[in-house]
Amino acid sequence: MSSTLPTTADQPLLRRADLGGLSLPNRVVMAPLTRGRAANAALVPTELHAAYYGQRATAGLIITEGTWVSERAVGFVHVPGIYREDQIAGWRRVTDVVHALGGRIVLQLWHTGAASHPDHLGGELPGGPSAVNPRTRSFTAGGFKETVTPREMTTADIAATVADFRAAAENARRAGFDGVEIGALGAFLIAQFLNPRLNRRTDAYGGDRTGRRRLLLDIVDAVAEPWHGRCVGVRLAPYWNEGEHFRADEETLADHDALVTELNDRPVAYLHLRGRDRTTADEAPDLAALARYRRRFDGPLIANNGFDRESGNAVLDAGIADAVSFGTHFIANPDLVTRFALRQEPAVGDPATYYTGGAGGYVDYALSGSGAGAADALVPGV
Ligand SMILES: Cc1cc2nc3c(=O)[nH]c(=O)nc-3n(C[C@H](O)[C@H](O)[C@H](O)COP(=O)(O)O)c2cc1C
User: How many domains does the chain fold into?
Assistant: First the structure.
């Protein structure tokens, strides 16, 4: 064979990595992806989930879809939980399959807070940091609905929520996960507390940036307990823009600078950063936006948002990240790592089936080397 063909070893994405107690055979991480397939009243993950995650077991690390820490956390249809015994048993089946296939899998912990809707909560108002409508939408059984003005959580509500996160982390351990990731992004509970426009509290959980970040830090400490201070990741999106309240500006970026610095003193296995959104699909991810946090965080960093094989290798090469997570690519390419090794173009998924129930668009994406065009697909690109 020609010695000019690139080898897999040329690609930083395919090198081993250690992320705070998690040992990865490659740096291609599956980003958390809500897929709305737990279509049962008890929100138990099913055999379809086991097949879906099993198909993706060659990822360096799988981060599951956001998963409810409690009934109060629910805010999107057909998303599984980790607060009941039957849910733990369902997840145990998933982790067994992934481990039998040689993979590693951590559970993302999710609470929607004020971004939920009374339809999910037996008609009750959702709780949030303050009585301010986050002005987003919640996906209910009746379709997307506008959020409402939540009730302000009491300190007892906050303590109960921190306890829910701890119990969920303990349950994740019992379900056989390799770790947990705290979802502190989007328009959801922890991000609502971090947000100065939504958090108008004057107690210890608001007032200034130290108060606003207290909920997250309390949750990190609580979740780390059952994990003995290892294998707990945190996911942040400092550049999140949504509606009138979620806007990255000087104040919120400075808040995230201080928060990330503070996380150095906590038992955080890795920081998973969703970077700035690209303005067009052809644009490369903004590496400087991620480097801002690389300078502040001493531990392993996972970069996300808009990466492909080339830009993923580049962000690792530049020393800005230790691993890269891929969302949409993992939907349509269960064997994304193989495709990267072979330098194949990834297949493109169908957004119309992202959240619809059933196997279609979930477990029926072809592996490279199978199906129509497989022979062409196996010819390495350059
Ligand atoms: C269908 C879908 C569901 C998602 N669900 C979650 C989720 O549950 N938790 C989360 O933190 N991010 C979620 N995200 C965001 C992705 O993890 C990721 O940040 C996003 O897809 C950008 O990465 P990409 O450019 O590699 O796709 C979701 C994205 C998509 C497309």
Answer: 1
